[in-house]
Amino acid sequence: MLPFQSLEDAEMAIGRPLSHAEVLWFNYSAKMSDPLLYFHNILFLFLIFTLVPLPLVLLDLMGFKALDKYKLQPKVRLTFNGILKCYKDVAFMFFTVVGPLQLSSYPIVKMVGVRTGLPLPSMWEILAQLVVYFLIEDYGNYWMHRALHGKWGYEKIHRVHHEFTAPIGFAAPYAHWAEVLILGIPSFVGPALVPCHMVTLWLWIALRQIEAIDTHSGYEFPWSLTKFIPFYGGAEHHDYHHFVGGQSQSNFASVFTYCDYIYGTDKGYRFQKEHLSKMRRRWIAEGNGEVPQKMAQDQKLQ
To answer: How many Å apart are CA 230 and CA 256, to the nearest integer?
Structure first.
């Protein structure tokens, strides 16, 4: 709940006129408690994991051939019942694990200093904090994910997530309940170390979920973020991790690729890409025209 009784009080306290965004925030949040504002995350997460993967999944079910050239594993087609089961399992996990975790974590969020009042942060402040959060989460997630590929961690916990060797967007949060808790920790470390405004926290949680859906989408488009954000792994990088499967000791990164490169856990992935690129260049150099369909598909798979 905001400490100001009116817009005029807020402007006097801040010492300047409120921006349009701040007026909207005041009108929306003035009568709401801080816990209620924080619990918006539950609604955002539910809508994101339900709606964001839906277009590509529906087009895949319809057999939309125009997308096949962008599909990383074009021979794999999931059934409607398989996709529905995935969604129902994720929804069950959401209501039994993720939702209660969000509800119970509010005291920690309040303790570390996440604020709800005015003024709102500037766009530069939001951007800087989001960059920090992504870097911290990515580094922590890399080591936790890598640990889950040990014998005990994989067999007892992580194998559930790897049931999808050709991932889809709905499978991004598909995991054992313990993995949901373990890999959720790095997402809270950034805001704990660098406290932010509630709107920044909303944006952070939403973007992290959308990024996870993107890397599990199974598609690599010309407009994918890998083309515009340095070191962003994207769907191709993570798809290789799922394709190799349980024995994979490669491509553990959740967002960026620098940890895999620094610690040498992308050697298999880079070798396969270079090997298939050489095959492709040699095929074209020998005057054979277009790359054979099988080679093109294998290059996507690897």
So the answer is: 8
